[in-house]
Design brief:
This protein is an alpha+beta fold and 293 residues long. The protein has 2 domains: 8-179; 184-292, TolA/TonB C-terminal domain. The protein is built from 6 helices and 18 strands. The protein is globular. Helices cover 20% and strands 34% of the residues.
């Protein structure tokens, strides 16, 4: 087991896994612990693959720092995977503390070389190279999730093997792609996904930060999806989830529909076809700019 300090809180499951099918996303959830020590774990997936976004709710998730709504954590799926350094926003959810992990996660953390390549792609506004799928044997070997470093109590959630829950989450995501009006078999066999022309960096600038939100000190996280036609033009923008206010949603779709252009997706025969592209935009006050991840 991880973390030998005395202040580690280890929580066993108190419910089964629950899978929620939504129109634009899928959510895998489970509760751990009881009473005042109960923690709810959410994995949200916005497109098929190994990546998901993590949110946790529970009053035991007390940050060490109280002078900021953002904390650093060590995030580890154990016992065989390495720890990953992450940031999370603190907040409230259903009258309890909440942690919203910034950026997408997967069971297997990126290597240093993969991190460097993705950082370089992000800074240049390019789409990162596709990673090899996570081996299902590695997901099956996971027994727990540990959060340490930034909380008053390190927390270990005894998840049990993660291969079947994550397989169900991926199936939900592919079913969602069908709801978008796309051919799932065709999308699974693309030889190229839509690629932003000249990268995605020019799509949003500090000038796109809603002025009213900046004056009020509001930050926001917006997950969006585009449908891209065979000519490479976005034909629709959908907000998958958002922390709101709605001004952030409108700023994202208005800017991207106006500025984004793509090299279209190619099917198994190399023919341009309609497909989807998704991304997350994070609005942060301290930089005065919108940031994408």
């Amino acid at each position: 087991m991880p973390a030998q300090a005395q202040d580690v809180l280890r929580l066993k499951p108190s419910t089964k896994w629950f899978l929620d099918y939504a129109e634009d996303s899928c959510r895998l959830a489970r509760k751990f612990g009881e009473g005042d020590q109960q923690v709810t774990l959410f994995f949200d997936q916005f497109e098929p693959g190994d990546w998901f976004q993590v949110t946790l709710g529970g009053n035991v998730l007390r940050p060490k720092r109280t002078d900021s709504n953002r904390i650093g954590l060590m995030f580890r799926f154990g016992p065989n995977e390495a720890a990953d350094e992450i940031e999370a926003n603190t907040g409230r959810m259903d009258h309890q503390r909440a942690l919203i992990v910034l950026g997408a996660q997967r069971v297997v953390p990126l290597t240093e070389a993969e991190q460097a390549a993705r950082k370089a792609a992000f800074e240049s506004g390019l789409t990162p190279a596709t990673l090899l799928p996570v081996e299902r044997e590695r997901e099956a070997s996971v027994d727990w999730l540990e959060l340490s470093g930034g909380l008053k109590n390190d927390v270990v959630l005894e998840t049990g093997p993660m291969d079947q829950p994550l397989a169900a989450l991926r199936k939900c995501s592919w079913d969602t792609v069908k709801l978008w009006g796309l051919d799932v078999a065709q999308q699974k066999n693309l030889t190229r996904k839509p690629q932003p022309k000249r990268g995605s960096k020019p799509w949003l600038t500090g000038d796109d930060y809603p002025r009213k939100m900046a004056w009020a000190g509001h930050e926001g996280i917006v997950n969006f999806r585009l449908l891209i036609d065979p000519t490479g033009k976005p034909i629709s923008c959908h907000i998958q989830t958002s922390t709101r206010p709605k001004e952030f949603d409108e700023a994202v779709c208005n800017a991207i529909m106006k500025r984004a252009r793509f090299d279209p997706a190619l099917d198994a025969e190399g023919k341009p076809v309609t497909s989807f592209y998704r991304q997350t935009v994070t609005f942060r006050i301290e930089s005065g700019h919108s940031r994408k991840s």
